Each structure stands twice: as structure tokens, then as C-alpha cells.
């Protein structure tokens, strides 16, 4: 786990293995590089020629570009790493926090195997401190649990030292402490997403959540297959019916004595999705361990909220099941009686996420929270619509949908508001049951949202985040985003809880 400290030391005097500085393209289309604020002492050690040296080495200042140079005399650190920040801000402008976050992440990734690095990036405001800290800690992530670690193995950057932010500045210290709590839990979500499904069964996930809950003062309740059957959770049981690993519904409750609002978070937790009887074809099932990313995000967010001690009541619901084909599996054409009492005709067993979420939505609604947000890798249709880096937001309240979109943008998560067209509901009419789990093919992500809406309690504000695109990165790493599990939506959920605690959302 990467350590984080704030230091009053100057960049020149810091004893570290590397110094990270920012460089940018000259303003107004000018030629050459500009050394970003925070790196003045480093530039002086190069006799004011740091930009020229970096240009000689091929640096352009492009966002995320990394260039390494040996240190001259006058610096305690033997290596200088320059990371590109893109365009130099104009007059009365500052560097965007997401640019800083991604730059810090790129630098941290490039420093694999390094023990200690000082980050001398622009930190003019508290938000900048938070962004650099988050980016560095997220960029220093590595999942190595299943790899042999020989004596020559290089682990992630071990310690991040933030320069330019005073440790005695209460706001800066609080920002750093928040960044550490959120990123540690987000990285724990990444670990869960990356864990092979033969080890992360619904029971194993529930055990991890139980242990973390007790460690952080949460009230934890786990419904096993017997309790689910007794309670009538037909959706969760129907999805898990084909697996030898039975399903679980986990409730994680955080309460605060000063809380005036309550928030329920629900995560889809399909620990492996084969598609069931409606089997996925080859090429579409190799990464389906990630189908529990929504539950991982909710779990991480609730624990982070508890660590931050926010004055808001937050309950997390993890709907955990493994979707497998077998003689006991739910078949296309079967009808399930859900926890709500509604019946659902299952036309496609690979549309299983909405079934487990539906039961959890109904159960969460019984506690009458002020708002419910569910998070799920729900539909390939959303990936087709928004690509691999943007999640969709649907809601039964336009203002709430807008607020979540703005929060996501604030924390650096790409998202887009999506509609719930009423005319698509008719496509889910069933001649046999109250509703079918499939509707029109076109607009499939919106159809899934409309299905979920049917199970939200009357009068409760609700939003649905379809993170199917950004939850699992199958391409190369970029910025602070690794290959594999990303922890998508964790930062949005934590910031949402903060906004609710601050009374900003009604």
C-alpha cells in the first residue's frame, strides 16, 4: 500500500529517489515548453534550462507524457521525471484538477519499483492537493496477488511525498487524508474486481464485506440462500440457481448521530456471468469476473464514507450471485416471483443483473431512504452508446440525474445523462407475467433502466448508473487508470454522500 505524506521540504533538498515536475505547452500557440509552478527549485538546479533539456529529450508537454532525466548537482534526488500537463493556462486560469490527477497518475505508474518520490506539481488550491494525491495513489496501484514475487520483482511506488502543500494547513491535511481514505477503498474495489471468480464467490465476497464492515464500525447483515428463500427473493435466487456457489444479499449500514438524510446504494454483484442458459459466446465471457464491479463500488464507497465520518446515513446493498448454466439453472421462459411480489418472465438469462437489482431495490425501498442509487455493469448497449470510458445515468428525477452528472464531472469520472423513454416500457409486456426481463433491442440500456424503475418504492428519488463501459479496462493503462478493474463510480458515490451530508441535495 502506497504511503502519502505532506512535506515542507524544498524540492532541491528532499531526499527521495525521484522528483516529479510538470511541464506544459507554451500558451497562445507559442513554441517550446513551460516549466509548471512547483518546479522552480528543480529548474534552478538545471540553471534555468530544464525545459530546454526536456525538449532535447523529446518532451512536448502533451498531457500524460512522461520524460525522465538524470538530476544535476544541487538536487538530492537522482532522477527528475517530467509529466506533461497539456496547454499552459491563460491569465487568471489554473490547471484543471483532472489534468493534475491524470498527470500524477501517469508519473506514479512510470515510477514502478521506486521507493520514494516527491511530487512538485502545481498545488495552488486545496482541490489541487486532493487531485495530485488521488492521482498518485491511484496510479501506484498494482494487482499482483497471483504472481510470484521474486527478489527482482518491482512493486508500485512505495511513498508519495507532496511538496508545496503545508502539513500544518488544516485544509491541505484534510484533503490528503480524504484522498488516502477514498483511494485505499477504491483500490480495494479494484482488487475485488481483478480477483478470479473461482476465489471470489458470492460467499467469499460477503465474507470480505463482513470483515471490512466490522473493522469500520458498520452494521453487517448477510442473507444466505436459506434466508433468501424464506424472504422470497426470487430474482436473486433465480439468477444463482444454476451455480454450486449460492447467492447472497449483503446489507452494510453506516449511521451517524448527526445525520439528517439517508442514502441507499445498491450494487450488482454477479461474481461470474456465463450468461446462464443463454450462454455468452467465446470472446464475451473471458472478463466476466468484472460483472460484480457495481457491488465492489458500493462496498468501497460505504467503507470510505465510514472512514470519513460523514454526517449522513448510508446503507449499501450487495446483490451477489453467480450466473451459470446447469440442470438447475433458470431457463428462458421461466417465471420468477420477485421480492416485491411482481412476476417476471425470463426471456434471456443473460439479462440477469436487473433481476438481482430488482430484489435489492425493493428491499432498500422498504427503509424509505431519501434517495437510492444503483450501480451496475448492466448492458452492452450502454457501451455501444457511450464507449468504454463513460457511464450512463438514468433517474426518475431530472434534477437528481443532473446533480449526479455534475458530481461525476467534479471528481473526474466521465458520465452522461440518459433518458427513460416511456414508450419503451410496452416492449417488456408479457402475456404470462407482470413484466418480461427483455424489451426492444434498440435502446437496450434504457429498457434495462425502465425495468429497474418498476421496483423502486413510490415517492423515492432514484438513479441508475450503468458502468458497463468504464468498469473494466481491457486496453492499456492511462493516467491513473490501470488495466483491469478500475473502481468506476466509487468517487462519484463518495462525493454524492458528502453533498447529501452538506445538505446540498434537498
Helix and strand content put the structural class at: alpha/beta
Number of strands: 20
The CA-CA distance between the termini, in Å, is 38 Å
Unreliable runs: none
Shape: elongated
User: Order of strands in the sheet with the most strands?
Assistant: 8-9-11-10-14-18-15-16
Task: Summarize model confidence as the mean pLDDT.
Answer: 96
Subunit arrangement of the protein: single chain
- Fraction in helix: 25-40%
The largest sheet is: 8 strands, mixed
**Tally of separate helices:** 14
Query: What percent of residues are in strands?
Result: 15-25%
Rg, rounded, reads 24 Å
Keywords:
506 residues; 8-stranded mixed beta sheet; 20 strands; 33% helix; 21% strand; EC 3.4.11.1; protease
Q: How would you sum up this structure, described in words?
A:
This protein is an alpha/beta fold and 506 residues long. 33% of the residues lie in helices and 21% in strands. It contains 14 helices and 20 strands. An eight-stranded mixed beta sheet has the order 8-9-11-10-14-18-15-16, with helices on both faces. Strands 1, 2, 3, 4, 5, 6 and 7 form a seven-stranded mixed beta sheet that branches. A hairpin with an 8-residue loop joins strand 4 (66-70) and strand 5 (79-87). Helix 9 (293-308) packs across helix 14 (490-501). It is elongated and about 80 Å long. It starts with a strand and ends in a 5-residue tail after the last helix. Presumably involved in the processing and regular turnover of intracellular proteins. Catalyzes the removal of unsubstituted N-terminal amino acids from various peptides. It comes from Streptomyces roseolilacinus. Its main location: cytoplasm. Mn(2+) 1 binds at residues 273, 350, 352. This is Probable cytosol aminopeptidase.
